[in-house]
Structures are given as C-alpha cells and as structure tokens.
Amino acid sequence: MARFKVMIERPVCISCESCVNICPEFWEMAPDGFSHLKDSKKVGENEEREVDDVSCNNDAAENCPATCIHVYDNGKRII
Ligand code: SF4
Q1: CATH number for the domain harbouring residue 40
Q2: What is the pLDDT of residues 19-60, one digit of tens each?
Q3: What is the position in ligand 1's atom list of the atom closest to the CA of 27?
Q4: Spacing, Cα 27 to ligand 1 middle (Å)
Q5: How many domains does the chain have?
Q6: Which residues, in sequence order, are CB contacts of 78 under 8 Å at separation 6+?
Q7: Atom 8 (ligand 1): residue with closest C-alpha?
Q8: Ligand 1 centroid, distance to 14 Cα (angstroms)
Q9: Beta carbon of 17 within 6 Å of any ligand 1 atom
Q10: Helix, strand, or coil here: 12?
Q11: Residues 6+ apart with CB under 8 A from 47
Q12: CA of 3 to the centre of ligand 1 (A)
C-alpha cells in the first residue's frame, strides 16, 4: 500500500483550475467542467488515488480555494 492518498471532493470543486496549473501531472479539467485526479478511482462522487510520492499535490491542496483536495499520510489526513 502506498504511503499517501490524494482525494478530491468533486461536488465542492468550483472549477478554478488552480490545481491543474500547479500540478498538471496529476490534475486536469474534466469534460463536466470540474477537476479530475488522473488515474484515480471513483469513490461515490469523490476520486481517490494512492501514491508513493505526494509530488506537487501538497501545493495543489493548499492552494485549492474550495479546500476540496485532501492528502493523507499513512491514513492520517494532513491537508
Ligand atoms: S483547485 Fe480546487 S476548486 Fe480549483 S479546480 Fe482544483 S479542485 Fe477545483
């Protein structure tokens, strides 16, 4: 199991594109106009992806104006 988990609460996204600009290797805008976490799995209305390297996702989460991106470190939410 990977150390980190990144997730997005998609219903809360306000389509500002900040995450896509900060961390394009992980984020893109989906056809429905909201952010999509690449290579993620859907969990209800949210998306989740486990990663060994959190990469730019901390910056993406910290700069999300809707605070709908979260990062977990070994199961503990850090953002
Ligand atoms: S930064 Fe947050 S609100 Fe903006 S597009 Fe990304 S997930 Fe949505």
Answers
A1: 3.30.70.20
A2: 999 999 999 999 999 999 999 999 999 999 999 999 999 999
A3: 6
A4: 9
A5: 1
A6: 58, 71, 72
A7: 13
A8: 6
A9: yes
A10: helix
A11: 7, 8, 10, 36, 37, 40, 41
A12: 23
Show the domain range for 13: 4-77
pLDDT (mean) for 59-73: 98
* Predicted pLDDT of residue 76: 97
Find out whether the beta carbon of 71 lies less than 6 Å from any atom of ligand 1.
no
What pLDDT score was predicted for residue 25?
A: 98
Which residue's CA is minimally distant from atom 2 of ligand 1? 64
Look at residue 68 and tell me whether its pLDDT is greater than 90: yes
Q: Which residues does 34 contact at the CB level (< 8 Å), separation at least 6?
A: 10, 13, 15
pLDDT at 1 over 90: no
